[in-house]
Amino acid sequence: MTTAPHRRSPVDPAAPDLPAPRGSCPFAPPPAYEEAHRTAPATRADLWDGTSCWLVTGHAQVRAVLGDHRFSADARHPGFPFLSPGRRELLKRSTPTFLRLDGTEHARQRRMLTGDFIVKRIEAMRPRIQQTVDEALDRMTAGGAPADLVRDFALPVPSLVICHLLGVPYEEHGFFQSRSAVLLDLAAPVETVGTAQRELNAYLADLTARKRRRPDDSLLGRLAARPDVSPEEAAATGVLLLVAGHETTANMTALGTLALLRHPEQAARLRAEPALVKGAVEELLRWLSVVHLGVPRVALEDVDLDGAQIRAGEGVLCMVSTANRDAGVFADGDRLDVTRDARRHFAFGFGVHQCLGQPLARAELQIALETLFRRLPGLHLAVPYESLRYRTDMIVYGVQELPVAW
Q1: What angle do CA 114, 274, 131 make, to 5 degrees?
Q2: Paired strand residues for 310
């Protein structure tokens, strides 16, 4: 990856570089973010191209930024903080979806999809999700130990579920999983990112065109049948949902499993009291924060954020990983506790851009983790913990492989 010559922020010569390296604990935020949080809830930091942005680390301040219309999610605004050349290529050249839109256009696109992710509809999907989880575990255990929990369980389950919801043939999962991995890789060359983006868009555009000719009851089928949705918009929305719909949940499933294996007393509590699973999932979402590189925004006007003078056109990264451990909100926040009330976490964001698919993600995680630890009470790592590798250069954090036995 080629980057611009680095130069320090003129505001603070000690500003950390972004993304910051991980420390010795793979579950904790990078030490530089924790140190920044101890210094002030909003500090300056340097991006890969030598520009600086604001690093917002406190719970109250993250909530304030994400809930304030004066901070935009639109990557087309000057000053928007890109985490790599590839991310800049992807966000500047792609058709904007509701994730990167504000105001009425954001609301219009989001309303088209809300009905597919309401709690009532997701609750009705639970039997199918349970069947998908059970069948994945059947296949994994039939193959014998050891198995890679990422490849054999954590990734197939949400992939199958989102394919069913969208109306995407699962037999083509290898294609879209390989391309989505490129889109989420900070180190991927700009040309590679551009190619992956075009190939995914072309695939979804072709699928949408087919569904326009032969409508069905899938999410993409209904989207394709709408006269107010262009083929480009439908394809871009499909790419967003397909990538986000399996990457985040897959990585949370695997990393959450590892966290419980490293805290056997918490896993034992969950096995003994399965009703704890809903709260346990919220605690894991808080404690792990797989959206580990921050939620980007850009100021549209001057804002005083608890003494930090953020000027119009300055980028902001809201660090949910530190906000989710803020001691002022979560007592002893560095400790994993499946009985904790963790509902104020920002794993799904906050405000009008809060994750649309969170009811689905919650249902999948609850069913996957409860079933996994119930059916495999002897589940354990099949390799030394110290040998595991992590997705530090990916937009969505997780563990690369998770060899397990039972």
Answers
A1: 55
A2: 303
Residues 148 and 402 sit within 8 Å (Cβ to Cβ): yes
Q: Decide yes or no: CATH 1.20.1250.20 for domain 97-295+327-405.
A: no
Q: Which residues contact 39 (CB under 8 A, 6 or more apart)?
A: none
The predicted-structure confidence for 342-363, as pLDDT tens digits, reads as follows 999 999 999 999 999 999 999 9
Which DSSP string corresponds to 264-333?
HHHHHHHHH-GGGHHHHHHHHHHHH-S-TT-EEEEESS-EEETTEEEPTT-EEEE-HHHHTT-TTTSTTT
Specify burial of residue 17 (Cβ count, 10 A radius: 0-12, 13-18, 19+).
middle
Q: Which sequence spans correspond to the domains of the chain?
A: 97-295+327-405
- Inter-helix orientation angle 119-142/358-375, to 10°: 30
The DSSP element (H or E) to which 148 belongs, if any, is strand 147-148
* pLDDT tens for each residue of 219-275: 999 999 999 998 889 999 999 999 999 999 999 999 999 999 999 999 999 999 999
What is the spatial distance between Cα 58 and Cα 324, in angstroms, rounded to a whole number? 9
